[in-house]
Write a structure and sequence with these properties.
It is a single chain. This protein is of the alpha/beta class. It is globular. The N and C termini lie far apart (65 Å). Strands 1, 2, 3, 4, 5, 6, 7, 8 and 9 form a nine-stranded mixed β-sheet that branches. Helix 1 packs parallel to helix 9. It has eleven helices and nine strands.
Length: 327
């Protein structure tokens, strides 16, 4: 009888724990959720995060706070989330840099594929090649010839090691077989400020950070890195039109949680992310920035995991060939 009583008590305890776990998933969240953006405020990834966070706050019934933790090409903020509690209250919104960091950094304090739980893809943002508005070349053909002729006399800005702007510049220089003088910044926002101010010659960055400046005539635009022209920048040719088909790159963004976060919380965050991506205001703002939200089928853990895995393998070959690394 005593043995049966113990078994019954143990079974009741396990059932209670299971029920409490389910209830925890259903009750989540009970306090604000922090989304870490591993880049400076005002940059393209920050813009995406704040648009998403506003709608997710309404859907979750708790404030979703964007926290900028810049530095070390995005690895500082990502590392902070990798070691955060797996309770769903600290998330990471990162871009293509999640797939390039393992190859760029000889000593990375986390593994993007094993230290995070994927939630879903968000969007893939085209990139544009822009310059200070008084830069000598006026067309992409002229720019190509000018870069080949002047090489390291030209300054190229990027948002730091592993940033999308560095990757685009690396592909551009590889396509031309010419090196420019690269100038790293702590984020895309400061880099764009110096392009507008005329202190730097060139920048290749996401449309979320360049569209309004292009439309306002604050910078000179040469091309977009997509197979087809963009609806909101119809006069901007593609890089392929100028004979640079290899210079095609889109900057995908994804939402992550620390590994160990429960499936119930991941599912709740996933449904909230999908609600944000279906929001008319988000769709409209994304369109103004030259991008669109991913489909519901892509805003899933499986789709983000597949993207991260395939892109990590692809960029490893490119980065190893270029021989560009960071400590």
């Amino acid at each position: 009888m005593k043995t049966n009583a113990i078994k019954f008590a143990a079974a009741a305890l396990l059932a209670g724990l299971a029920m409490s776990g389910t209830a925890f998933g259903q009750d989540y969240p009970t306090k604000p959720v922090t989304v870490v953006v591993p880049f400076s405020a005002g940059g393209p990834t920050d813009t995406v995060a704040r648009l998403i966070a506003e709608v997710m706050s309404k859907d979750l019934g708790q404030q979703v706070v964007v926290q900028n933790v810049g530095g070390a090409g995005g690895t500082l903020g990502a590392g902070q989330v990798a070691t955060a509690a797996d309770d769903g209250y600290t998330l990471l919104l990162h871009h293509i840099g999640m797939s390039t960091a393992p190859s760029l950094y000889r000593s990375l304090p986390y593994d993007p594929q094993t230290d995070f739980a994927t939630i879903g893809l968000i969007t893939s943002v085209p990139m544009t090649l822009v310059a200070r508005k008084d830069f000598e070349p006026d067309t992409l053909d002229e720019l190509i010839a000018f870069v080949k002729a002047n090489g390291e006399d030209i300054t190229y800005a990027h948002a730091g090691i592993g940033s999308a702007s560095q990757l685009c510049g690396m592909l551009f220089m590889e396509a031309l077989g010419t090196q420019m003088t690269t100038v790293p910044y702590q984020g895309s926002g400061p880099a764009m400020t110096d392009i507008i101010g005329g202190q730097i010659d060139l920048l290749c960055d996401q449309t979320t950070n360049t569209t309004s400046q292009i439309q306002a005539g604050e910078v000179k635009a040469y091309a977009v890195t997509t197979p087809e022209r963009l609806g909101n920048l119809p006069d901007l040719p593609t890089t392929a039109e100028a004979g640079l088909p290899g210079l095609q790159v889109g900057v995908w963004h994804g939402l992550y949680a620390p590994v160990g976060t429960t499936p119930e919380i991941i599912a709740r965050l996933g449904s909230s992310l999908q609600a944000a991506l279906a929001d008319p205001t988000v769709i409209e703002r994304f369109a103004e920035l030259g991008t669109v939200p991913v489909s519901a089928a892509e805003a899933t853990p499986a789709a983000l995991t597949e993207m991260l895995t395939s892109q990590t393998a692809q960029w490893k070959g490119i980065i190893d060939a270029a021989g560009i690394y960071a400590e």
